[in-house]
Amino acid sequence: MTKHVTIVEDDPDVRALLARSMGAEGYRVTALETGTDIEGVISADPVDLVILDIGLPGIDGLTITQQIRRHSDVAIIIVSGRGDLADRVVGLEIGADDYVTKPFEPREIQARVRCVLRRGRREGDAVPQAADDAHQRFSFGNWVLDATAQSLHGAEGHAVSLTSGEFKLLETMVTRANRVLTRDQLMDACYGNHSPSFDRSIDVCIGRLRRKLQDDPRNPAIIRTIRNGGYMFAARVTRQAYKN
Ligand code: CA
After folding, report:
1. Fewer CB near the last or first residue (10 Å), C or N of the chain?
2. The domain 4-118: what is its CATH number?
3. Is the full-model pTM beyond 0.85?
């Protein structure tokens, strides 16, 4: 099915450039000038990815990201002005999947959109499974990560919502438990060839995961920070395969 990309950008030239770039990739495009109606658009017509400018009149892109994340895991790429490093970090922290910096080339945004969409296999878009295809499950502490269903559940069975980037990072760490992983290795695993150019995005994503796993950042038991090294998944992991 054709993917639906929604663009929120107040600058008409950038909006037109984004709409053209996405149209050229074969996506169905909805372009909005402000984010006021974004939640209406998402609930009326399922959206696969939102490209969201940070600097918008009325509600800014970061606030919109927060609003969307309250009830949706739709992929979000934020667009920031040059030099707004803090905004980019905050954007990733509150749940954006990636960002691009203005000015950007159509090819760059196209590659990032492809990458984020590939990473996030979402509901209704899952790769069809053969009947005998076993799910992979990883248990650690009070948590169960289902790598096939891309879900995380707590001890009482409650589901914890993860963005595609968080899922990928957690899966990468869980499958390489008790090994030190450098930020570069984690970046490669999560972003492939489209790594954001600064290290902090991994730290930010780790911070988010710790919060979701209720891992005390000052004394983490699950994801440890290794001085001058990177991170290590320190919990004991049990791997199970099960049939649907
Ligand atoms: Ca703007």
Report:
1. N
2. 3.40.50.2300
3. no
